[in-house]
Write a structure and sequence with these properties.
Strands 3-2-1-4-5-7-6 form a seven-stranded mixed beta sheet. The model has no long low-confidence stretch (mean pLDDT about 95). With about 200 residues, the chain is of the alpha/beta class. The chain has six helices and seven strands; from the N terminus they run ααββαββαβααββ. The protein has a single domain, classed as Vaccinia Virus protein VP39 (Rossmann fold, 3-Layer(aba) Sandwich), CATH 3.40.50. β4, α4 and β5 form a beta-alpha-beta unit. Helix content is about 30%, strand content about 25%. It binds S-adenosylmethionine. Keywords: Methyltransferase, Transferase. This is Phosphatidylethanolamine N-methyltransferase. Its EC number is 2.1.1.17.
Amino acid sequence: MVSISTDSFYNKFAFVYPLVDVFLKPQKRVLIDEINTLPRGNLLEIGVGNGAHLHLYEKHTITGIDTSSAMLRIAGKRKHKGVQLLQMDGEALRFQNEQFDYVVLSHVIAVVDNPDRLLEEVFRVLKPEGRIFILNHFTPDNWLKYVDHAFGIMAKTLHFKSVFHLHELAMISRFTLLKDVRLGAVSYFKLLVYQKK
Ligand SMILES: C[S@@+](CC[C@H](N)C(=O)[O-])C[C@H]1O[C@@H](n2cnc3c(N)ncnc32)[C@H](O)[C@@H]1O
């Protein structure tokens, strides 16, 4: 079910999101450069947000979904031909099985209510050997974990999980890790590329 609170949070937050985007832009460039090297395919982006990066995709048939109508409205003004945008919950995808070659999760896996359920849906709609691209922060096993823990309550009000470990998700074992790209000086952000087993 769509999380009404996260949905309405992003509806209110949509107008300030461009400020967050300034910070995320270089990471998304790395993500999309990686995707642009792959053979043409059917790509699903879950939690597409305001679509500021949509123009960077050079090929592929793009479907972007999001639960926030305000984010989608902004993305709609930016999308080019060949991009389809739909209001949909990533935890309850209205797509048939094995429909997509690639799924992009850019700063969304630690935002959704149930990341395991999200991965279950991603697994279902991916074709055999299809790939997921997960761009996110991951709580490291160093001093930064204390920052994540301290930021926990504040993060809750901002609708994301500051303490986030991918290995704790049962569904991740259904995928093989292909690539681990560390971003920034302390490698707090990463682009992880997985393939459906
Ligand atoms: C932090 S923003 C990331 C936006 C974009 N992917 C980016 O990298 O800039 C998270 C986005 O995920 C959306 N979202 C949250 N829960 C969702 C869900 N269950 N299904 C689809 N989208 C969701 C929010 O509305 C928001 O637009």
